[in-house]
Design goal:
The chain has 517 residues and is mostly helical. The protein is built from 14 helices and 8 strands. The N and C termini lie far apart (228 Å).
Length: 517
């Protein structure tokens, strides 16, 4: 028991010791933690104070920088304001000077105006005096001459007008002669060279085609029972078939050469085959029309190849081929166009221009004459629109549209095409001319000259290329004869249409007659 009690006492003593030790150790730990915490707080306060001082220094530096910039900007603005103020003061000073100068000039102007007013009054008085003196002189002269001033003035004006007109006519004649001598020399050379280098056939085209048959019995087969064959043939071809007493021949009449050619070829096939009836006629005519269309295209292509013209639109090529069956005043249109194309190339080469473009314009210049429909505009304008439609160059289109002066010429190709067209159409043998029109032109030439006073007789000679005018020697002087020739030529030029040129020669002679008895 005592042992147990002793053991318990020892255990209690040990536990108490442990508890006391633990408490003492815990007390020491708390004291060291508090001490460490105080040390940390002191260090943090020191660091905070250092950061605070650093931030304060940075803020002061930033403030000083901003203040320095602000002061500099304020100083710059003050300098600028001072400059503007000085400029305004200078402008104000200049304005005041100008205002003073304007006032001074206005005062001077008023003084000059007053002086001019005085001078004008003096001049008006002097003018009145001069007019009175002039009237007195006129009255004295009228009393001496016995003629009024108005009549004398009129006579003087008429005399001066006559002299001036005569001198002007002589001067104009001299200028024209000199201009023709100098300006036309190269032009004549170029035209002559072009004409010498081109040859062409004479006109033989007309509006009927004669078809020869083997015998007159064929005429009955062509006419058919009750005329059904000939009616079917005329309806299919669009031509008029004339069957008369002409032996072994029938006539196709139509203004369209293509239709006449279709009729000729179709009739040749029908006559060779021997089967002539309406159904066969329609079949053959359709077949021949296709052949003609192919031949037209082939002719257009061959023409372009012969002339060295490339990249032409197929529709324009077809129109070129159609020219083979078209004539103008008896001149074949395709031959005329080829001739104009060659002339244009020669003339363009002589002038240093593009010969290929000139040849192209010359070939296409009359393409409007072979239109597929009825035209409401001149053929030159239609041809120009056709060329524009198929993307031809502007200078080519202008040359086509301007070759009859329907539009203004804008390139050098246009006058070349116009001149070459006139050369090709006006040369002897190029075109047929109706006798009545030819005689009428000669009579009109003579009538123009006979309309002038002093003209006794006129003669149109050399196929209308020269006009001889005989005048009375007592009514027309040598000087007025030149004037008369000039006036007649100008009137012919403005009122008449003719190929080439007309030479006007005024003849004045004095005859002395005596009789021996």
């Amino acid at each position: 028991m005592d042992i147990i009690i002793a053991i318990i006492a020892i255990s209690v003593a040990l536990v108490g010791g442990l508890i006391v030790g633990f408490l003492l150790a815990n007390s020491r730990i708390n004291k060291s933690a508090v001490q460490e915490k105080e040390n940390l707080l002191k260090e943090a306060e020191v660091k905070n104070e250092a950061v605070k001082q650093e931030k304060i220094l940075q803020a002061k530096e930033k403030f000083f920088q901003l203040k320095t910039q602000h002061d500099k900007q304020v100083a710059d603005k003050n300098i600028e304001l001072q400059k503007k103020e000085a400029s305004l003061k200078q402008k104000e000073t200049d304005t005041n000077k100008k205002l003073d100068e304007a006032n001074r000039k206005q005062q001077e102007a008023e003084k000059i105006k007053a002086q001019l007013t005085q001078q004008s009054e003096v001049m008006s008085k002097k003018q009145e005096e001069l007019e009175k003196a002039h009237q007195k002189q006129v009255q004295v002269l009228e009393s001496i001459s016995g003629m009024r001033a108005a009549d004398a003035k009129e006579q003087l004006v008429e005399s001066i007008k006559g002299e001036a007109k005569t001198e002007a006519m002589s001067y104009v004649k001299d200028i024209m002669d000199e201009a023709k001598l100098n300006a036309n020399k190269e032009a004549k050379k170029i035209v002559i060279q072009a004409l010498q280098r081109v040859g062409a056939e004479q006109a033989v085209e007309n509006s009927v085609t004669v078809f020869h048959i083997e015998g007159d019995e064929m005429k009955g087969r062509i006419i058919g029972r009750e005329g059904r064959n000939i009616r079917a043939f005329e309806a299919a071809t669009g031509v008029e078939v004339i069957v008369d007493d002409t032996p072994e021949a029938i006539i196709f009449s139509c203004f369209d050469p293509i239709r006449r050619e279709v009729a000729r070829l179709a009739m040749a096939q029908l006559a060779l085959d021997g089967r002539i009836h309406p159904a066969r006629i329609e079949e053959v005519v359709e077949k021949v029309k296709k052949q003609i269309e192919e031949e037209i295209i082939e002719t257009g292509k061959r023409t372009c190849i012969d002339l060295g013209i490339h990249a032409l639109h197929p529709e324009l090529v077809r129109h070129v081929g159609k020219m083979k069956y078209r004539s103008s005043y008896g001149q074949n249109l395709l031959q005329h166009s080829r001739e104009v194309a060659n002339l244009c190339a020669v003339m363009a080469t002589e002038m240093g221009l593009d010969a290929k473009a000139a040849k192209r314009a010359g070939l296409l210049h009359d393409i409007g004459k072979v239109a597929d429909e009825e035209l409401e505009v001149p053929h030159a304008i239609y041809g120009m629109k056709l060329a524009e439609k198929f993307k031809e160059k502007p200078e080519i289109c202008n040359a086509i549209g301007a070759h009859h002066d329907e539009i203004e010429m804008t390139t050098m190709l246009s006058p070349i095409v116009q001149i070459c067209d006139a050369i090709s159409g006006a040369r002897p043998g190029a075109r047929r001319e109706i006798q009545e029109q030819y005689m009428k032109r000669l009579k009109d030439l003579e009538a123009v000259a006979l309309s002038y006073p002093g003209v006794e007789k006129t003669y149109a000679i050399q196929a209308g290329r020269e006009l001889r005018v005989l005048v009375a020697s007592d009514k027309v002087t040598d000087q007025s004869a030149e004037k008369l020739a000039f006036e007649i030529s100008q009137k012919i030029q403005t009122e008449m249409t003719y190929p080439g040129q007309v030479k006007v020669t005024v003849i004045r002679e004095t005859r002395a007659t005596s009789y021996a008895k």
